Amino acid sequence: MTTFAIRQYGDPVLKQRTKEIEEIDGSVAKLVADMIETMYDAPGVGLAANQVGVQRRLFVYDIGTGPQAVINPRIVETSGEWTYEEGCLSVRGLSWPIVRPDAVHLVGLDLDGNEMSLEADTLEGRCFQHELDHLDGILLLERLDEDQRREALSILRARTLSLPAGDPDGLGGLLHQPS
Ligand code: ZN
Q: What's the burial of 101, exposed, middle or buried (CB within 10 Å: 0-12/13-18/19+)?
């Protein structure tokens, strides 16, 4: 298995909406295996295909119950509200309390092409929403309130200006469970 470099904030691939997977073949299975390896290596609890530069609608996750892949995922229902300190493997070393729906109903396909229907809340529900955002070209920065966003952008700007290129983690690896 291979691990990928995880694309970082500023990479245009993170702002593009991914395309549906039309055929689930061996190349998709290989991609999933490599993405899972990359996620564990990071480490993180979720990883979307465009975070490794692949513009396809697919993410992997493991919130402690084993690795899973969801192909062509869609959220069909949300409810409640939950504030959680959320980080991202593509915005290293930073996290913010973000309010999102608590529970979600996610549908998609597994690697055998079978339909999946998952009801999830708290960490799993958050992970699904975060990964779906990635697949739609949305980073968590766009989920911040105005003050958080202003602060975040100034930190990220200072980071790209002053840190040596070899130190993307300049502010320290603060995150417990980025995705
Ligand atoms: Zn992320």
A: middle
